[in-house]
Amino acid sequence: MNDITIPASSTAIARRIVQSWRTGKSNYVLVTPPLTDATCIIDRLVDEQFYEQCELAPEVPAVARFRAGRIDNANTFISGVVAQWDPMGVVQREGSDIGANLRKVVQFLKRSGRTPVLVIEAFHQAVRTLTWDVGTALRTLEHSLQLKTVVELPVKLSTLRMRWAVQRGEPTFLASDFGQGHSTLVLGTYEPSEVAALVAEYGLTDWRAKMVTELCGGLPDLTGWLAREAQYYDSPASLRRYVERGAPDICDRFLKWLDAPAEAAFTRTLARMHEGGPMNKVFATIDKHEWADFMLDETGSLRSSILGLAAVQKLAQRESGASGFANEARGVGTITTISPLIFPEGEARRPIALMANAKPETIVVAATCWGVRYGGINSFNLEFCRALAAQGKSKRRVICLVPRDEDILEEMDGVEVIAIRRDGNEGFFQFDTQLALSALKDISTVRFVVGHDLKSGTFAQSLASALEVKSIAFCHMAYAAYYSMTKSSEDGAKKVEDQRKLFSKADAIFAVGPKLVKHVKALMRTIPSKANTFEYLPDLLSMAPVTSPRPIACITYIGRLGSGAELVKQGTLAVTAIGAALKRTKLHDPLVQVIGGSDAENETDYKELVNREANRLVNTQFLAFNNSREKALGYIMDSSLVVMPSVHDGFGLVGWEAISLGIPLIISTNTGLYEHLKQLGLHSYVGAVDIRGSMAKPNEADVNALSDKIFAKLSDPAQAHADAAMLLARLRESDQMTMERFDRNTEHVFKSSADASLSA
What is an example of a Pfam family matching this protein (predicted)? Predict the structure, then answer.
């Protein structure tokens, strides 16, 4: 998070904890209600500069930081703690006596004048794998050797004990005395001045700023979510509809933790407070909940009406899905056209039951290949179509049109892939529209046609026009930002104008990531257009990530080498900096992979470049792009580090894939992916480099900066892997709801026709 998005209350909590390390006892339970994020606090607990701000010598704390979800068992946990406290292996450990080994290392640190600290994030996940003797050992060290501890939980430790005992029998760890006497701190909300600064950061004014402020009540995740989304809506009514539809998803985890399993007392109270019903018969008042200060303002009213709305909708869903709950749910009512609005003023909203399409819809997507033959856009299309089909299931038919039979290279996985020609040249042509109409002649439920930028966008618009349906264009490229770097100015200007013409005719534009959203807005500001522009973020891959660092280093760069458009990717810079970094390491048998470099001219010269920079022989492989999606991702998964030093990248799909697979990443700051991570406050988990770029020999400053980042990752592979795992976990928790957002945004585009059919 940047300074604007970090609540002042979180900084105060971090300062209190760090300053307490100078005292005898410092053991905290950090309660992090869903819709908050403790990452900014935990990051400060390992930040030497923050120690200095707290007037604590930075060399004193010895912090072992763990995310509980990465703990396999008690022994690996203890080994990991010891390895962080004693990375050089000075202390000799013997046998499997957990308490004795921990005590040895803690005593060693204290004799060295250091303060041992143990920080565990998402601690509720650890109780599945840790044992009673671990809890007892930690508790003993807290008292006898003043071990400092911080554990993060969504609820108090005592609450967790009660809930686990009821739900599945008390785990052995929770049977220990760990946690008794710990101080409990609960994360708070934004102050009004902080909300004002945040909405200003997103450029929100007038009614948008007011809605974010009034609806979210300063709850951090709600405020950040709505501030990001509000810029894409053109009226209070349209934004209100989006909020009402999104409330159940964004508040789902909050409501799951609000009550104990199989209970709903606090949820019913939230719903009743939202609807203004009588409070004399409620079973649990919110002021008795451990999150009370988070949910209620100074007057005892709900801070955020979104919470109340989500509670109402959850109870309504239970009523429709479980008859045994019906009587309870009827006590708070369901969403109907006469239910109170989330805002008191404005037009009446649509009933939730009417939001679904009455008939199954067909969505047609045009792509130059069903596979990864041509690179990133095709990879994106595979995941997009499959996710689109999975989201719609029986209510949606997804058809991907490709030019030729030979362009179908992958399994279809729920998507109907149709080649409109048997053979011919690659890509789409004007006559292909008529062939596509023939292929679709028996389908009457096409809702819209999707095209990918200039690759298939023009064909998609031609087909949509012939079918008399809407067209959607994806923006994957910012030609205005880079094309003339490597091509003639005339060619660059033509690309920009072709893209502007394409987008001006679209009914909606989906830009991949925040950088391309700004590009579209800059491109379209001088011409009239009917198109709404929305941000689209790809789903994380569903493949299981790696679970440990690669024991032998493998540094991977994906992209061609040489002149022309490849200069944007700065491949020569990548191999130069990799070699320079290897010169400083003592790694044995490192492997350098250049994927896409098998056709590079003078491959031997590039190998010699790596060897010369490394001052030794290095095994460097130049491999072809693989047409198999599985094998292409396998290259990334087999890496210990992926390097992406582009001078510009609209998004950076390879980096997103590396993150999805748990692989450490170094990326240029001038990419949409880096901007997205920075907006979420997660950019510190990747190596980031400001690349200046060069048309010939790599810029010396770029080589030094990039090689420094590579060296840092290679020097501490355990930390690099931990950062990658943490980044993936935080992104999964952010629950970006890609397809849900896409569906809501397309419904926004078609709301006029949908409203007309409803009123009829």
Answer: GT4-conflict
Q: Find residue 404's DSSP bridge partners.
A: 421
Given this model, what pLDDT does residue 394 score? 65
| Residue 700 sits in the same domain as residue 616 | yes
pLDDT tens digit sequence for 164-175: 654 455 556 777
Indicate the angle between helix axes 479-486 and 489-505, nearest 10 degrees.
160
pLDDT band at 565 (very low <50, low <70, confident <90, very high): low
- Beta carbons of 388 and 363 less than 8 angstroms apart: yes
Domain end position, chosen among 307, 335, 354: 354
Determine the straight-line distance between the first and last CA of the chain, rounded to whole angstroms: 48
Considering just the CA atoms, what is the radius of gyration of the chain in Å?
28
Helix ranges (DSSP H) in 401-488: 432-439, 453-467, 479-486
Q: Any idea what DSSP says for residue 736?
A: -
Q: What percent of the chain has pLDDT over 90?
A: 51
Which of 154, 186, 218 lies at the terminal end of a domain, its last residue?
Answer: 186
Q: Are residues 520 and 573 in the same domain?
A: no
For residue 467, the enclosing domain spans: 361-536
DSSP letter assigned to residue 685: G
Which is nearest to 241 in space by CA: 321, 322, 342?
342
Q: Are residues 420 and 504 in the same domain?
A: yes
- Judged by DSSP in three states, 408 sits in strand
The answer to the question of residue 749 being in a domain is no
User: C-alpha distances in angstroms, 68 versus 45, 126, 387, 485, 736?
Assistant: 17, 5, 29, 47, 22
Question: Do 115 and 260 share a domain, yes or no?
Answer: no
Tell me the C-alpha distance between 9 and 4, whole Å: 12
Task: Let me know whether 598 and 711 are in one domain.
Answer: yes
Q: Is-contact 215 226, C-beta < 8 A?
A: yes
In 112-145, which ranges are continuous DSSP H helix?
132-144
Rounded CA separation 147/103 (Å): 10
Which residues, at least 6 apart from 330, have a Cβ–Cβ distance to it below 8 Å?
319
Local confidence band at 569 (pLDDT 50, 70, 90 cut-offs): confident
Give the Å distances, CA to CA, from 237 to 219, 347, 397. 22, 7, 30
Q: What are phi and psi of 9, to 5 degrees?
A: -65, -35
pLDDT at 327: 38
> In the block, which residue shows the tokens 């008292």?
143
d(CA 562, CA 603): 10
The C-alpha angle 28, 30, 33, rounded to 5 degrees, equals 160
pLDDT (0 to 100) of residue 133: 80
CA atoms of 398 and 416, how far apart (whole Å):
6
Residue 444 sits in the same domain as residue 484: yes
Note whether 334 and 446 are same-domain residues: no
Same domain for 152 and 64, yes or no, is yes
Q: Say if 198 falls within a structural domain.
A: no
Cβ atoms of 629 and 372 within 8 Å: the answer is yes
Q: How many domains does the chain have?
A: 4
Q: 517 lies in a domain?
A: yes
Position 219: which residue type? L
Q: How far apart are CA 20 and CA 211, in angstroms?
A: 39
Domain CATH number, residue 424: 3.40.50.2000
Which pair of structure tokens corresponds to residue 526? 């001088």
The CA distance from 44 to 59, in Å, is 15
Residue 227 is assigned to a structural domain of this protein: no
Q: How far apart are CA 713 and CA 578, in angstroms?
A: 11
Name the nearest CA neighbour of 654 among 596, 715, 606, 599. 596
**Tokens encoding 641:** 């580090």
The total number of residues shown for the chain amounts to 760
d(CA 61, CA 116): 6
